Amino acid sequence: MYSNADLDAAVEAGALSSESVLAFRRFVAARQGSSLVDEEQFRLLTGFNDIFVAIAGIILLVALGMLGQIICRQLGLVPPEGPEGAAPLGGLLVAGAAWALGEYFTRARRMALPSILFLLAYAGGVMWMLVSLAMLAFPEAGGATGAALVSGCALLTALATLAHWRRFGVPITIAALAAALAGAVIAAAIAWLPLLGEEPYWPMLACGIAVFVFAMRWDMSDRERRTRRADVAFWLHLLAAPLIAHALFHLLGAFDEHLSTAGGLVVVLLYMAFGLVALAIDRRALLVSSLAYVLWALQMLLQHVGGLQVGMALTALVIGSALLLLSAFWHAARAMVVARLSQALAARLPPVHEPAARAGLMA
Predict the structure, then answer these.
(1) Residue 258 confidence (pLDDT)
(2) pTM of the full predicted structure?
(3) Within 10 A of 261 (CB to CB), how many other CB atoms are there?
(4) Residue 23 neighbours by CB distance under 10 Å
(5) Closest among 118, 125, 142, 138 to 89, alpha carbons compared
(6) Most confident listed range (31-35, 96-100, 316-320, 330-334)
(7) Proportion of the chain in helix, strand, coil states, percent, rounded to 5
(8) Quick check: 131 and 139 in contact, CB under 8 A?
(9) What is the pLDDT of residue 248?
């Protein structure tokens, strides 16, 4: 069983030509009744061994984190009355082990799922270590000072994540870096803009839009989605959607205990707008990342029809049916949306593959 990474490596080594690999991918896509672009492919598993290694790696990293906490307490690095979770050694052990595991399972074995988990563990371990050091150095810090310290820790985590990208090149790394930068910006806004209080939804919205624009730059650099740039864009879109949706839906009061009918309708219409954008750029990740928010809003709306259980059942029925219908007619719906865009914009988006053309290829 050969993965896309294996085919790309064969092209780089000169064993296959890029034209033959592209023709092979199009042939497989035609046999499956899809298109090379529209299926939004990304690597998650190369085999069951990925799951096996991922489970073993998680157990190891959790054990190292716990041992780091115990050692910090026993050596007196953290006072007994110190803040809970402040264990810089735990974060250091997790980050170091994740990097070391990546040297073999990412660089040598090129395993997809373990690479993702080890990257997240590395970034999380670095952030844990830095926040622990800040908590121990400034135990009384809170409010604006605490937010400023968190902002600094997130910025340093972003720099550490950049080093990981240069070494391993795992596609999700750019999204992790963007998340760290977004966290730094949001924490800095809390620290320096006291009017925001503890609900900085405007900076969160700005960060979400910035991540979305950044994702589109990666997407537009690979319209045919033949390189890992498309995978980088996928993870960035998966990050941008909840940032935008969480901020917008909170600003609209979607999570109020008594959401009004008008407010609920606005949330549903906003999710439909997300759907139009997802169709235009051919990214289902936008719909998946913001799905929880529209489920909540639609449930609140349908509670006016019946009891809580009826509302939940109707919500699941409506959303599930709508998403399955959209998936079945994704290509035709996308063709209609892109046809209404300007030619200049459509030329920068992934090409549209008509269902009829695919049917002809399969005949």
Answers:
(1) 66
(2) 0.84
(3) 10
(4) 11
(5) 125
(6) 96-100
(7) 75, 0, 25
(8) no
(9) 87
Q: What is the DSSP string of 99-151?
A: HHHHHHHTTTS--HHHHHHHHHHHHHHHHHHHHHHHHHH-TT--HHHHHHHHH
Task: Residue count of the chain, please give it.
Answer: 363
| 50-75: pLDDT as tens digits | 999 999 999 999 999 999 998 988 88
Check: CB of residue 58 under 8 Å from CB of residue 82. Answer: no
Q: How many CB atoms lie within 10 A of CB 230?
A: 22
Question: What is the pLDDT averaged over residues 198-214?
Answer: 92
pLDDT tens digits, 287-306: 887 787 778 777 776 665 55
| Distance (Å, whole) CA 250 – CA 363 | 50
Which tokens belong to 69? 């906490």
Nearest 5 degrees, angle CA 350-CA 203-CA 265?
70
Instruction: List all residues 6 or more positions away from 359 whose beta carbon is below 8 Å from its beta carbon.
Output: 33
Residue 93: what residue type?
L
How many angstroms separate the CA atoms of 95 and 125, rounded? 5
